[in-house]
């Protein structure tokens, strides 16, 4: 029991912040659709504010994040649901500059994780990205050709520059 109590203390600051958030919370009863009709697939990198970088606010868009901002089967599942059930008619796929997934090889990622974990990570697949723009174009094609993405949905790819805040379109 003392281990759980100790672990819980590590979240006190976050729970305090949550209380302040709840005190000013104004989205009760919101239906969960994307008010601006936007879905964004991007990286989990904490330098990215997916809503802010395109001038949106909570409730405007559906956000799907993963290492590298790739469109795999989970992202496709989310996008299919978003385009049919959640008002999404525009999809942005947004990887970013200086991404660890694009600046390390699969072997380097396994080595770094293994060293940090103190365990063998050679069996884990991290999906390193050898050519970020090629990967983005493949992801765009994957979305555009998926048979269950709603017709008429606009799909675009951008690389987000973490040093300038700008998006650069990639077709």
Automatic annotation (TrEMBL):
<comment type="similarity">
    <text>Belongs to the beta-class carbonic anhydrase family.</text>
</comment>
<dbReference type="Pfam" id="PF00484">
    <property type="entry name" value="Pro_CA"/>
</dbReference>
<keyword id="KW-0862">Zinc</keyword>
<keyword id="KW-0479">Metal-binding</keyword>
<comment type="function">
    <text>Catalyzes the reversible hydration of carbon dioxide to form bicarbonate.</text>
</comment>
<dbReference type="InterPro" id="IPR036874">
    <property type="entry name" value="Carbonic_anhydrase_sf"/>
</dbReference>
<dbReference type="InterPro" id="IPR001765">
    <property type="entry name" value="Carbonic_anhydrase"/>
</dbReference>
<protein>
    <recommendedName>
        <fullName>carbonic anhydrase</fullName>
        <ecNumber>4.2.1.1</ecNumber>
    </recommendedName>
</protein>
